[in-house]
Amino acid sequence: MRQQKRQELRKRQHAHFAKAPDICRIEHLWGFDHTLAGIIAKGLRAFIKQNHRIGSTPCTYVYPDNDLSIPDVKAAKSPDAYSRWQSDLQKMQCAFEDYYRRDGDFTDAPEAYQRFKEGIQLFADHFHDLWI
Predict the structure, then answer these.
(1) Sign of the torsion angle spanned by Cα atoms 67, 68, 72, 74
(2) Are 89 and 47 in contact (CB under 8 A)?
(3) Residue 59 in domain
(4) Per residue in 10-68, pLDDT tens?
(5) CA–CA dist 115, 91 (Å, integer)
(6) Residue 79: inside a domain
(7) Is position 12 within any domain?
(8) CA 118 to CA 45: how far, in whole Å?
(9) Predicted TM-score (pTM) of this structure
(10) pLDDT per position as a tens digit, 93-108
(11) Distance CA 46, CA 81 (A)
């Protein structure tokens, strides 16, 4: 019975991905960095909206020392965890939006390039935290 449920889930997932927009056409691959920046920026915007509604925060923000063995877990909680997570999500989103808008050209804006580097590093560091 369990095996059958797994197979049904895989079929539904495969059908979902089969309906996904085709981003592998040559016009999307020519500037794939630009294509991905637009997709990621849009995804992060939706993620922020839903996350704000739900209010979830990764454990690494809630427990900065990542020590969940503390006897009084509530006392160890970081009070500003949610606001720091929201701020970092905004930095990630802005980084990809800037990259998309500028088509990756930051030659005239070194400050914007530094913000982009910070946002993309946050994205890499917290890629595994992007779930609701």
Answers:
(1) positive
(2) yes
(3) yes
(4) 666 555 555 556 667 777 788 899 999 999 999 999 999 998 888 888 887 877 666 55
(5) 8
(6) yes
(7) no
(8) 17
(9) 0.74
(10) 999 999 999 999 999 9
(11) 20
